[in-house]
Each structure stands twice: as C-alpha cells, then as structure tokens.
From TrEMBL:
The keyword Transmembrane does not apply. Belongs to the tRNA nucleotidyltransferase/poly(A) polymerase family. Keywords: ATP-binding, Magnesium, Metal-binding, Nucleotide-binding, Nucleotidyltransferase, RNA repair, RNA-binding, Transferase, tRNA processing. Coiled coil: none annotated. SUPFAM superfamilies: Nucleotidyltransferase, Poly A polymerase C-terminal region-like. CDD domains: NT_ClassII-CCAase. Residues 18-137 form the Poly A polymerase head domain. The keyword Heme does not apply. This is tRNA nucleotidyltransferase (CCA-adding enzyme). InterPro entries: CCA_bact (IPR012006), NT_sf (IPR043519), PolA_pol_head_dom (IPR002646), PolyA_RNA-bd (IPR032828), tRNA_CCA-adding_enzyme (IPR050124). Pfam families: PolyA_pol, PolyA_pol_RNAbd. Its cofactor is Mg(2+).
Length: 366
C-alpha cells in the first residue's frame, strides 16, 4: 500500500504530525477507488495552523483548509455527550489529544484507521481484521450516542453487501433507537445518507438495517417496505437507473410518496417522479389510444418527455412496460404541429378539442 500523504517538503505540513484518516485509508486497503482525503493533525493548535496559512472553516471544532490543495485538516479531538442528537456533543481539541484518542470517537473499526507519512497503518481497533473478515463493527460504546452512526451503519451495509454486521453493533443500534436518539435526526442528514445508499448496488440493505433495529417508522414515517420494494431497488441498481427513479421505486408501495419526500426534504425531481410513478402504475395496462394520451397528459409528457420516459423506465422494474412502444407514442404525439391545428379551430375549447383529436388520430395509426 503506497503512502497517501502529500509530497514531502510541503511547507504547510512540514514538521507537523499529520495523518490521513478514515475512508481514504479504508478504501485504499480494500482496493476501492480513491475519494476525498481527510487529515488529522496531532499536537498542533489553531494558532500554529493559521501561521502556516491554513484557512479555518470549522464550527464546533477546529477544521482547516490546506492553503494550496484545499483538503480538510482537523486537529485531533475528543468528544463528550452533552445533549440530544448529532450536535449534542462537546469537543476538546487540545495539543495533548493523541491520534488514538481521535480514532476512538469514530463509528466503525474500518473507519478508525490512519496512515502516517511513512505509509504505516495505525489501527488500534483492528479495522484491518474486520475488513479481512468482512464485518461491520462499532469502535466503542459511544456508537449509540450519535444517531447519524445508525444511518452510516445502514449505508455501509448497502455499500458493502458482502459484509455482515456484528451482533453487538446491532444491539447498540437498537439501544440508540430505544433511547430516542433517532428522533433528533435532521431531515437533511437522513436524505444525505439515504441518497448515498440508493446509489449503491444493494440499497435494500439500508432498509434491512433500519427495519432490523426498529428505526424505520421513526426515521422514514409512512414508507412501506416489503420484498417487492427490495426487489425493485436491486433491479433499478442493476439497470443503472438515475436517483429519482430509484427514489420513486423506494416509495412505490407507500400511500403518500409526496409526504415521504417532504419529510426528508428530498429534491423536487425525486418527489415528482415518485408521485408520477404511482400515476403510471395505476394506469397500466393502458390498452387504447385514449388511455395512452390520457397518461401522457397526466404526466405532463408533452412538456417534459424525458421525465415521462424515466418514470416509465422505473415502472418497468415492477410492471410490464413496452418502453419502445411508449417512446413511439410520445414522439408521434409531440410531432403534431399544434400551431397548424390551432389555425383550423376557433376559440380555446375548440383548439383543445382539435389538438386532442389530432393526437388521437396519430396514435390510432400506431
């Protein structure tokens, strides 16, 4: 494993006790594509960092941007529970905080490793062993103090489906739910972790973890998850469906997809496709030209044809849909010269009737 550190001689870091930590080390050990690097500086102070040109950006604890690379460097820190939820912690980032102290506060052993300038791996909690044995395991009892760690556990279960979850880690996750910590989760953080999970090849494992620890109704109220949803999500991932289609399939067995989207503040396109997927599934099979046109118009397919086709592609994961036929129908209807038709009619209602008749006529030819 090659060192992940910056080129020796960097004046900003020269002489500092600096380590790459967390996901970059994990992914390098697993042969995964390199992502962003996070850094920890041991034995420094905000004043020392400022003197070297680092730009302070941290709120609750000292985090700095490298003056050239703009990568994040955080001072080694400890944390103590002081309130509810993700923000309910008091941090200490004194120069006496060791690297192991910093790693001890992390969520999973696979994320509690560091790499020094010489390439040596610092692994006080046996993360390499857990990676070798394919186990997701908590670092310490503090796991059940932060509800975001439950979301991250579920997300890593989706990202690494070949990994099992240590039973004692699931027990701590259940305690986190039972103590009410999950009720302090903010919608934006729920969506962020759900979004990352939906983009994996096994998003159903995120849902499994949430159900297994009793968190589903607290974190995603109104969401109905069953074997059909799991199968649809795995199929969507295999086909490479974009995020809005995957979210729509996540909600396709639920009564009110719009409410679920609003609760976690999902993007508008995700909400819209979830709502439209219900319309499409309720309308299938559409056997007659008037049925085809009704569905196209209800889904605003004339103005937003690609979105309509995307929703049909999502529907094809759970129902029989002839996508090529629908594309021909949509192209035929959109090919009507609305201006020419309008000139043959008088008045708004007459124009609308003439347009509909022209569209039905072209659909009948198919």
């Amino acid at each position: 494993m090659i060192p992940l550190l910056a080129v020796p001689g960097d004046p900003a870091t020269q002489g500092l006790d600096v380590y790459v930590v967390g996901g970059a080390v994990r992914d390098a050990l697993m042969g995964q594509p390199a992502g962003d690097r996070d850094w920890v500086v041991v034995g420094a102070s905000p004043e020392i960092m400022a003197e070297r040109g680092f730009i302070p950006v941290g709120g609750d604890f000292p985090v700095f941007l490298h003056p050239r690379t703009k990568e994040e460097y955080a001072l080694a820190r400890t944390e103590r529970k002081s309130g509810r939820g993700y923000h309910g912690f008091t941090f200490y980032a004194g120069q006496d905080v060791s690297l192991e102290d910093d790693l001890k506060r992390r969520d999973l052993t696979m994320n509690a490793m560091a790499q020094g300038p010489d390439g040596r791996i610092v692994d006080p909690f046996h993360g390499q062993s857990d990676i070798e044995h394919k186990v997701l395991r908590h670092v310490g009892e503090a796991f059940c103090e932060d509800p975001v760690r439950l979301l991250r556990l579920a997300r890593f279960a989706a990202r690494f489906p070949q990994f099992s979850i240590a039973p004692e880690t699931l027990d701590l996750a259940r305690r986190l739910v039972g103590d009410g910590e999950v009720d302090a989760l903010v919608p934006e953080r729920v969506w962020r972790e759900l979004e990352k999970s939906l983009k994996t090849f096994r998003p159903d494992r995120f849902l499994f973890v949430m159900q297994e620890v009793g968190a589903m109704s607290r974190v995603l109220p109104g969401l109905v998850v069953d074997a059909a949803v799991d199968k649809a999500l795995v199929g969507a991932a295999a086909q490479g469906l974009p995020l809005p289609g995957r979210f729509a399939l996540l909600c396709h067995r639920s009564e009110d997809p719009a409410a679920i989207a609003a609760h976690i503040r999902a993007p508008g396109e995700c909400r819209d496709q979830a709502v439209l997927l219900s319309v499409v599934l309720d309308s299938l099979p559409a056997a007659l030209p008037q049925d085809w046109l009704d569905l196209i118009e209800r889904c605003d397919g004339l103005r937003k044809p690609q979105r309509f086709l995307d929703v049909l592609q999502a529907a094809a994961c759970v129902a029989t849909v002839d996508l090529d036929a629908w594309k021909r129908r949509l192209d035929a209807v959109r090919g009507i010269d609305a201006g020419a038709v309008a000139r043959t009619a008088s008045g708004g209602d007459a124009i609308r009737r003439a347009l509909r008749d022209a569209r039905l006529d072209v659909l009948r030819t198919l």
